[in-house]
Amino acid sequence: MLRIQKTLNQFRGHTRGAVTGIMAAALLAGTGVATQALAQEKTITAVMHSGLRVLDPIITTAHISRNHGYMIYDVLVAVDENFQPQPQMADWTISDDNLTYTFTLRDGLKFHDGAPVTAADAVASLKRWGEKDSGGQLIFDVTESLEATDDKTIVWTLKEPFPALLDTVGKQSALPPFIMPERVASGSADEAVTDYTGSGPFVFVEEEYQPGVSVTYRKNEDYVPREGAPSWMAGGKEVKVDTVRWVTMPDAQTAINALLSGEIDYIEQVQIDLLPLLEASEDVVVETRDDLGYQTIGRMNFKYPPFDNKKVRQAAMMALSQEDVLATLIGNPQYYKVCGAIFGCGTPLADETGSETLTSGGDIEGAKKLLEEAGYDNTPVVLMQPTDVVSLTAQPVVAAQALRQAGFNVDMQAMDWQTLVTRRASQAKPSEGGWNLFFTNWMVPEINSPLISPMLNGRGDDAWFGWPEDQKIEELRAEFIKADTPEKQKEVAARIQAHNMEEVLYIPLGQYIMPQARSTKLTGMIASPVPVFWNVDKVE
Amino acid sequence: MLGYIIRRILAVIPVMAIVAVFVFLLLRLTPGDPAAIIAGDMATPAQLERIRTSLGLNDPLHVQFITWVGLLLQGELGTSLISNTPVTSMIGQRIWPTFNIAVLTIVLSVLIAVPMGVLAAWRHRTWADYAVMAFSVLGFSIPVFVIGYIFIQVFSLELRWLPVQGYKAPSEGLWAFLSRAILPCLTLATIYVALIARMTRASMLEVLGEDYIRTARAKGVAEQIVLFRHALRNAAVPIMTIIGTGFALLIGGVVVTESVFNIPGIGRLTVDAVLARDYPVIQAMILLTSALYVFINLVIDLSYTFFDPRIRY
């Protein structure tokens, strides 16, 4: 059957021209047989939240590239739905002094080119990941050595204990340490890989890839799933279909029409105002498979007035109301949640200290008073508003109104998201091409720990955009790294929450979830922040 | 004639050179950074800088320009900064859907619009004329995506005759191709029918008042021969111009229609590339479209001699 498809593909390649194509079509009446044979294959066609353009999941933090990574690569360790690290490609033992982690690869692991997965492949992959990932960097800061002692054994020796090592190696965002062949992973971490050989449950079909249009994955026949039920990225990844195609549809209405007509099987994110169109159909199920969802946030620039002044930052936060932002952004209260926890509600470290004004609707009068005490001199606040990203257009408008009511002189500037991401990297003065305030969204698993949340870095120019210099947050993070029990971690996390709300390193503006829609023909989709296609079957 | 064609083709060189320099500079002056798209939200300034260096974006402008032109002269369009795919293969994948849809739209439009225009001129100031004019106004005024959605609602979701979206090459089966191409072509054709019908009517009206038409009729030449052989042929020059530019516009990419019907054409490719500041792709697309415009204009000019023997080059 593969050969038939290959021949067909080659034929397509040779006959792309319009005129030759139409003539060929007449000659091709006989291909009905081949089409019938192919039709018996189980194919899932899924509309994803964006087009896949970057194929190296280590060079980028784009979610779509990470999701692609989980299709074709596998990981040593994976966190399950209870936030517990579980063995995936490897089991482990930890030495009594908590300094040596020994991972043993399980039997039967094979790359898509047939080569066995070895410990050397894993070591090269972990090292490349460690150059890019912020959590990985923290582990490598205390790493004595990372070596493959034989084909199956990886020994990771630390200079000092790092209790969160397994959680970090097993995390699903932003960069999970996907295992690639050594020849691929030994390249530079700043140049995208061009060889897409993995050992995961699906194989990337390179000849059918169209950047931004569609990507095709075929079942990896050699993949041996782990025992046990799937749970987030852990457990048995059993593939029950032959092919999964991800397609991009820039028009949300088109995707919905295509699902209603049965041309596609799944939409990863449905715009909430379009839901009624789907809810009326008996052939479609609307559901939420990721209860944590996203946190929307505001971030200030600490380098320049007025937000170099802590009191002014506090005044701005006091003026804002999560409810107002979320109601404008999402509309339907079923899909959003007022939540003052910087680590996200529903996560082990959640704590809402200091978020009272945000969650209770804002305090404009209090903000006015604080602003007066701070001696605010009407310095304009340059607020960047992206106009081309649906999930980011509302926050600046709502915030600007609240800030103006509190007495801020807001200069809201509209631009496309690309201009915004370039401009937020600029450390120039706001009046000379810099900025004061912008908004963005994070998936909750990307900010649910002080080890990974980019906003909780206080290293000045080396910190995330906004560049706060905050010795205290660095000390608290170091304390968190050393906390070796969940109770101790939670206690430090609560102090970090309080510190964030006092210093206003960033403003958490609440949580929202995006509903998904699938055809009733799809069964067995598991709940997970990353949309996964193992365990899913398609019944006619 | 041959000298004229050669002169016209040679004239393309300075035009393309100017376009190339202009596009290159304009893109570099626009804010936006492909490295930021590649690295994503969590990138630190140092990481962005390293990616920029590895992509060559930190090289001085003239070095980047010379590298690009050097590649161009070897027939290389470069590699996409974002997806790492050769630009030629990206365009190769995306040009055929657009080209096939454009050809079908123009053929459909001409087949419908020219007889309509002729009819309107022939039956000047009768209900037929008014009906054609009314359709033209309507075709122009309704936004193309509204027409597309109406077609989808009626023919795909209610009647279930045609698929909602997608594209299949003609080589995958004539019906597979046509069933997906009909609705986008009809949608686009509403505009082009309106445009071509109006132009045909105006042009025909002018010609129908000429002495030679009156002479032909007086000689007893059959009315359809008067209309289609004498009048239409002489009215064809402006009609050809509008068909040619219409075709060039369609090839340039009709982004809205491509989005509504999910056709992986070059219109969407260009918009995606612009939003991601994928310089090599944008540059190649603009060069390609400019070359296409020049070529189509040449074909239109040459076609004039066929319709109007008085024109000589």
From TrEMBL, chain A:
Residues 85-445 form the Solute-binding protein family domain. The keyword Transferase does not apply. The keyword Signal applies. Pfam families: SBP_bac_5. Residues 1-39 form the signal peptide. Its main location: periplasm. Gene3D superfamilies: Dipeptide-binding Protein, Domain 1, Dipeptide-binding Protein, Domain 3, Periplasmic binding protein-like II. It comes from the Bacteria. Keywords: Plasmid, Signal. It is found in: Periplasm. Belongs to the bacterial solute-binding protein 5 family. This is Glutathione-binding protein GsiB. It comes from Nitratireductor thuwali.
Automatic annotation (TrEMBL), chain B:
The chain crosses the membrane at residues 9-27, 99-122, 134-155, 175-195, 235-261, 281-307. It is a multi-pass membrane protein. Keywords: Cell membrane, Membrane, Plasmid, Transmembrane, Transmembrane helix, Transport. The keyword Cell membrane applies. It is found in: Cell membrane. Residues 95-300 form the ABC transmembrane type-1 domain. CDD domains: TM_PBP2 (cd06261). The keyword Lipid metabolism does not apply. Belongs to the binding-protein-dependent transport system permease family. This is Glutathione transport system permease protein GsiC. It comes from Nitratireductor thuwali. The lineage of its organism: Bacteria, Pseudomonadati, Pseudomonadota, Alphaproteobacteria, Hyphomicrobiales.
